[in-house]
Design brief:
The structure holds two protein chains of two kinds.
Chain A (H helix, E strand, L loop, with lengths): L4 E2 L2 E5 L4 E6 L7 E7 L5 E8 L4 E4 L2 E6 L4 E6 L8 E8 L7 E3 L3 E6 L1
Parallel strand pairs in A: 2-11
Antiparallel strand pairs in A: 1-3, 3-8, 4-5, 4-9, 6-7, 7-8, 9-10, 9-11
Chain B lengths: L3 E4 L2 E4 L4 E8 L5 E7 L6 E7 L2 E5 L6 E7 L2 E7 L7 E8 L8 E2 L3 E5 L1
Parallel strand pairs in B: 2-11
Antiparallel strand pairs in B: 1-3, 3-8, 4-5, 4-9, 5-6, 7-8, 9-10, 9-11
Classes of the chains: A mainly beta, B mainly beta.
Chain lengths: 112, 113
């Protein structure tokens, strides 16, 4: 199957860390991505990880990949109100396709 | 230039109208995409163009007709749409193959009356 699942909603206090989780199903996925979408806007690529990596850090963002469990997470350190948005994980289909399969999306709300 | 631009930002059309959505990028990307996004849902892929040729059509109804006149432009021609086609239409572009980092435009908010 091609279902990529995420929890619907996450609420965190400003300054805390946020962890957004994603479960994918295609074990042949070569790349996995995290996108951010603010209200009324397009999607912004935050980061991606190659499937042979376990972790990738980029400033406040840390991506963890557990390939055995097909689990991907995005940790945002020192979460700010500007981080409030919907976050989508996505996987690149295997076998040379240029198609991305998006997760269901997690709405992150940051409160002061 | 690292932007994908889309016009118009908003479009309201009747079910008998013909209209077009436009997308442009100047990043040298050779893969371009149309997505449809309903409220509170992830984007759904509609079409993929690779090197100006249609490579993926996700069984989209023929009332949506894509066109890629050159490597920088992507159009979506609309005809005889239904109210359920109202959505945010997103265009994206990427280098073909490899990492496939897709850069998205801001979208066109389409309302069909």
């Amino acid at each position: 199957g091609e279902d990529v699942e995420q929890s619907l909603f996450l609420s965190v206090r400003e300054g805390d860390s946020s962890v957004i989780n994603c479960t994918y199903t295609d074990s042949s996925s070569t790349y996995l991505y995290w996108y951010k979408q603010e209200p009324g806007a397009g999607l912004q690529l935050l980061t991606y990880i190659f499937s042979n990596m376990d972790m990738k850090q980029d400033q406040r963002l840390t991506v963890l990949l557990n390939k055995k469990d097909k689990h991907l997470s995005l940790r945002i350190a020192d979460t700010q109100t500007g981080d409030s948005a919907i976050y989508f994980c996505a996987e690149k289909g295997g076998r040379g396709t240029d198609k991305l399969i998006f997760g269901t999306g997690t709405r992150l709300q940051v409160f002061p | 230039d690292t932007e994908v631009t889309q016009t118009p930002k908003h479009l309201v059309m009747g079910m008998t109208n013909k209209k077009s959505l436009k997308c442009e990028q100047h990043m040298g990307h050779r893969a371009m995409y149309w997505y449809k996004q309903k409220a509170k849902k992830p984007p759904e892929l509609m079409f993929v163009y690779s090197y100006e040729k249609l490579s993926i059509n996700e069984s989209v109804p023929s009332r949506f007709s894509p066109e890629c006149p050159n490597s920088s432009l992507l159009n979506l021609h609309l005809h005889a749409l239904q109210p359920e086609d109202s959505a945010l239409y997103l265009c994206a572009s990427a280098l073909a193959g490899g990492v496939n980092e897709q850069f998205f435009g801001p979208g066109t908010r389409l309302t069909v009356l």
